[in-house]
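Incident log, structure service

09:12 report received: a user says their structure output differs between two submissions of the same chain.
09:20 pulled the input from the user's history:
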Amino acid sequence: MKRRHSSDDGDSGCPPSKIPRLNIIRRDFPIVIPRRLITRKDFPSDVLKYMKLNAKPRMSVKLMNICKYFKHREFPFFVIKLIKHWFGQWTYITLDNTTVTTNTLAEIPDNLWITERIIVSIKEIDFTTFINKIIVSDVESIHFVSQTIPFNKFKHLCANVKNFTSISSYLKDDEGNDICLDEVLESLPNLEDLYL
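09:34 re-ran on a clean worker, output below:
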């Protein structure tokens, strides 16, 4: 009589009641942790303080949505929809559609979170100072006219850009050399419209 191996027909040789069942979670199924399970008591206070103080901006907003402990007394970022430099004047629009116009870059807050558009035209500006004021860039549209832009600073703005317009503007590396179009396109992963 021929002995059957478990690999012959997929039968393990164990009765069905003795086979351990595996609970497999599908990868596309989102895991949701109820808010009542996330409490301050679950973590040491040192960890919570570290997370609150050192979280990156987007993570900070997520933490604030999850637990009230992470909420700041005053939101640490100045969120605006649009910032525009036109003929020597700076204009920005806040989330509540308030338009503010200033004459100098120094009057603009140093903790900007820009959500929609950047327009810089006609008169050249100091891009290093301008980019240093931007903490988070969720910009979808950038429009430059007659500017010389350091490429390493430009990459800070590019993560979500869908529309990029550059008229008589130059992207330069640290040594002052022009950046080729291939490098510009690589730094704009979500680009849909390009106008040069």
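09:41 both user submissions now match this output. Likely a transient worker issue. Closing.
09:42 reviewer note: The two ends are 81 Å apart (CA to CA). Residues 78-195 form one domain.
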